[in-house]
Amino acid sequence: MDPFNKLILTLMVLSFLVFQGLFHAISPWASSHVSSGFRQLSRKQKIEWNSRTLSTLHALVVGVFCFYILLFDDAINLDPVWGDATLVKINVAITTGYLISDLLLILYFWDAIGDKLFVVHHLAALYAYYYVLGKGMLPYFANFRLLAEFSTPCVNQRWFFEVLGYPKSSKPNLANGVLMATTFFLVRIMVMPVYYGRMYSVLGMQAIYRVSLGGRIAWILSSFCLDVMNLMWMHKIARGCFKVLHSGQRPKLQTYVNRKVE
Predict the structure, then answer these.
(1) Distance of alpha carbon 120 from alpha carbon 247, whole angstroms
(2) What is the rounded CA–CA span in Å between residue 219 and residue 241?
(3) In 3D, which of 107, 140, 144, 141 has the Cα closest to residue 123?
(4) Alpha-carbon span 51 to 88, nearest angstrom
(5) CA atoms of 241 and 224, how far apart (whole Å)
(6) Fewer CB within 10 A of the terminal residue: the chain, N end or C end?
(7) So what's the pLDDT on residue 179?
């Protein structure tokens, strides 16, 4: 095994161990000091709290790194199929360690955080990342998918507000809900034409024929599965956001009507 591949494997293992340590030790300790409400939560809620804390941390680290690569890594932008995947591999290695850690936690604490869609999501992503890490193929597309992480902190924050008892019509909840729907749409839905347009543009290139059949299947199948789930989640988020905003506006409207009548 060459030194760089050893580095990638080491990063994966370290990422896995760090996220396990954060879940079992650091997050419970830090959360109990930062939020007094954490101590009042049930066992299942604490498990999900710690899981979402790690999810937010991972999203921020990987998302920023992903955005940097997309803007400044000329190698993968010029050659999205076989460009120098050094930075992308490092980022994907961190994500792979996290996904394996999270998948094991989901299975072990199934009664608290078990979710079939998340299992499918993690397995589809890991299947695709195998080809990125092992073969160095399709780095641009692997990195592009990680843009979706920018929506994760708002999704988790919505849950934190809910479990801490914030009313859905409260200003923090409303502001986060709008931001969540906006970021989710921008980084998961609106980018789809860009992503699939770039995919279509490379299908006729000579470089794509060097990608193994398994790699092409992983690329197309995982992209399709992830985006079907994104559309499903976007539908739920949009409905929830509209419902909360609509219900939050009705009392104000009714008060205004009552005052006019009086």
Answers:
(1) 34
(2) 32
(3) 107
(4) 25
(5) 25
(6) C
(7) 93
